[in-house]
Specification:
Blueprint (H helix, E strand, L loop, with lengths): L1 E3 L4 H13 L3 H9 L1 H14 L4 E5 L5 H9 L2 E6 L6 H7 L2 E4 L5 H4 L9 E5 L9 H11 L5 E7 L4 H10 L6 H10 L11 H10 L2 E9 L6 H6 L8 E8 L7
Parallel strand pairs: 1-7, 2-3, 2-5, 3-4, 5-6
Antiparallel strand pairs: 6-8, 7-8
């Protein structure tokens, strides 16, 4: 059943403190428009896994981390270039390590077995190197009792899908998304996926999937907003992945 993302008053105050700490326009925009989604992630995790040790992949601009501190979660973060926002990391006392999680050699330096939860929140759609290799490596090296918490946009999100049909496109602008590598330091959306594609992929890489469905930002499209109340046309998938059986070779 599709649910609406939420943010508590305490987390809203933390959001405002973080926005004030940034001069970077991209970071300020992210913190303003992604707060409900990030707050909902932290509220879900703190309720389901109290006291858990969490590894968050892809931290900047650290809204997830600041919310997690408010909710008592212990979070270590991986970011491609923590130096982009070093002053904010220091100011909020965050634990951030430089690493590109897509690169096997850098990922190998992380002890994944130390974590109860590995979080990939709105990161999967940005990845462009070796999804199968990355996920099978995760499956092998994370603890059998740990979970992978993964959120990603739904390709069939109704307002956006209607817009792409009108424009004759298959997704976000190639120019806009690939330019982000040079403009903000990480890739935009490579592509977005449907539930059936994700189910097939995660089963192949050795995981069982528990799908949730969420809308975290309002849309001005009336028909699209109505349709997004149905799971098939929701804005985001919220997926809990658990190791299952033997991962594929390779």
């Amino acid at each position: 059943m599709t649910v609406e993302a939420r943010i508590t008053p305490a987390l809203a105050q933390a959001q405002e403190r973080l926005i004030e700490a940034f001069e970077d326009p991209w970071a300020r925009h992210f913190c303003k428009h992604q707060a409900r989604r990030c707050a909902d992630d932290v509220l879900r995790l703190s309720a389901a896994y109290p006291g858990a040790r969490v590894l968050n992949v892809g931290g900047a601009p650290y809204l997830f981390e600041v919310f997690s501190k408010e909710m008592g979660l212990s979070v270590d973060t991986l970011d491609i270039d923590p130096g982009r926002h070093g002053d904010v990391i220091d100011s909020f006392g965050l634990s951030v390590r430089a690493a590109n999680f897509e690169i096997a050699q850098e990922r190998a330096q992380i002890d994944l077995s130390a974590y109860d939860v590995i979080a990939l929140c709105e990161v999967f759609e940005h990845m462009r190197i070796d999804l199968v290799g990355m996920m099978t490596d995760l499956r092998r090296r994370m603890r059998p009792d740990a979970v992978l918490y993964l959120t990603t946009p739904n390709f069939f999100y109704a307002p956006r899908y209607i817009k792409t049909l009108k424009k004759g496109t298959s997704g976000p602008s190639l120019v806009t998304e690939w330019r982000k590598l040079g403009e903000i330091g990480h890739m935009g959306h490579v592509r977005e996926y449907s539930r059936s594609e994700l189910s097939e992929f995660f089963a192949f890489t050795g995981f069982t999937c528990d799908f949730g469905y969420r809308n975290s930002r309002p849309s001005s499209a009336k028909i699209g907003t109505f349709l997004s109340r149905f799971d098939r046309f929701c804005q985001e998938f919220v997926i809990t992945l658990r190791p299952n059986g033997t991962p594929p070779a390779g």
